[in-house]
Amino acid sequence: MPANGLTRALQGLGRRVTDRIWRLGFAARFLMATVMYSGTALRRFNLTIREIYFTGVLSLIIILVSGLFVGMVLGLQGYDTLQRYGSSEALGILVALSLVRELGPVVAALLFASRAGSAITAEIGLMKATEQLSAMEMMAVDPIARVVAPRFWAGVISMPLLAMLFSAMGIFGGYLVGVQLIGVDEGSFWSQMQASVDFREDIMNGVIKSFVFGAIISWIAVFEGYDCEPTAEGVSGATTRTVVTSSLAILAADFILTALMFRGA
Amino acid sequence: MSSEPLVKLTDVNFTYDRRPVLQGINMEIPRGKVVAIMGLSGCGKTTTLRLIGGQLKATSGEVKVNGQVVNDLDNDGLYALRRRMGMLFQFGALFTDMSVYDNVAFQMREHTDLPNELIHDLVMMKLHAVGLRGAQKLMPSELSGGMARRVALARAIALDPLLILYDEPFAGLDPISLSVVGKLIRTLNDALGISSVVVTHDIQESLKIVDYVYFVSEGKIVAQGTADEIKDSAEPYVHQFIWGEADGPVSFHYPARSFGEQIYKEAARAR
Predict the structure, then answer these.
(1) Which residue of B has its CA nearest to A127?
(2) Are A140 and B94 a contacting pair at CB < 8 A?
(3) For residue A12, is it within any domain?
(4) Residue A171 to residues A100, A166, B225, B230, B256, Cα–Cα distance (Å)
(5) Which of A7, A254, B67, B85 is 20 to 30 A off residue B144, Cα-Cα?
(6) pLDDT tens digits, residue range A118-169?
(7) Number of domains in chain A
(8) List of chain B residues whose C-beta atoms are within 8 Å of the C-beta of residue A138
(9) Are residues A117 and A158 in contact, defined by beta-carbon separation less than 8 angstroms?
């Protein structure tokens, strides 16, 4: 009967919505537990340093190469537009501001979510599927303190550093194309950049953004891994969710942060 | 040594998602004995093990380990109790990012301030006990199933526990590894003066090494006794289980309507 069908559809919709809200609440409680049980990760900092190596250092290649190419493309596109208005010397400003304000934090975060976030989820998910987390609990060691917290903090610490390196490589790429290849005046390129890029307004806001993105990616990655179904399908689904959810969350958070930081500027 | 059993379950019920998993379980694990919990997959035997280890809490009834009621313990109390327990998981559950040595040393490093030299000596003793001193530098991915189970056993006895819980220790092992693991369970139990609970459906291997057996079916204890009593049991369920008969109290067919009725209806629908 149509009424029954409608009721069932509404019930299904209601259940899906309440399930999502419940899961969001669980994720928030999980984040609180991770922060509260971070004592081990911070006291025995070698645990966190090991994870910084796996999440941060091993992401260096993709971040540096991508940064270089993004900077080189910015150099080409920027020059093409600026020379129409006779201000090709402002290329340094365009490249630097684009990178430190936006592209550095956002693109580095998207790459970080794909490279490191997915790896964190898969690793924790597989540890769960192979009962390593249960084994740890049975050995009276809290997996949130020993496994989750070091990975979370490693992500939070690595992300701003990677974004800075991305921006630095991008500026170098812009310099290579703009100054060395096209022939924009080197003195104007660097001096205009130095004069126009503000440390607090531009660089610090970029660092804050990348710090927030790092926290978002790490939170999503550790939560999805910890909460996944302990099966092959469950781990693969959780890994996909980490990349999709954190990419969307980064873009949404970027809009909100940009609106807060640069309004009226 | 106290004569009180090390583990005692009294009228334990456990319900998961409104489905009763265990009903009215009464069980005792005496000190120094190896006790098996047997039954089909999904009958509730692993749940019983998890109740003893405090990973699950009984819906009603009492689970007592070494005089402490597990249900009433807070997180710190539970962790303190678990330091006196070892658990061997179905496929070993070794930490895949650590070597054999580091796996065995894990608890010593986490829970004690022992100097590295002493930890080294202790790890060597534990690995020697399971015959794998030479494998200390290998990673878990380089071990066979039987070796992984033995390393997990060395890890389980790392802090000299009172009780070891074995979850399907014989699953997926070749006959030689199966026999080695079986002998190790018995030898370590007697040599270290510990108690062991073995959850298994490997009837032949476990009856060789256990002192007492509980049979669980659909969340209830349906039979219990020593290995010899179980072998001679006339209980239909136990008989079917021991002799591996395809049909009996545990039906070969998954519940369905009558085959004749189904064919008739399908033929009528096709016309």
Answers:
(1) B95
(2) no
(3) no
(4) 9, 9, 78, 78, 70
(5) B85
(6) 999 999 999 999 999 999 999 999 999 999 999 999 999 999 999 999 999 9
(7) 1
(8) 53, 55, 82, 85-87, 165
(9) no
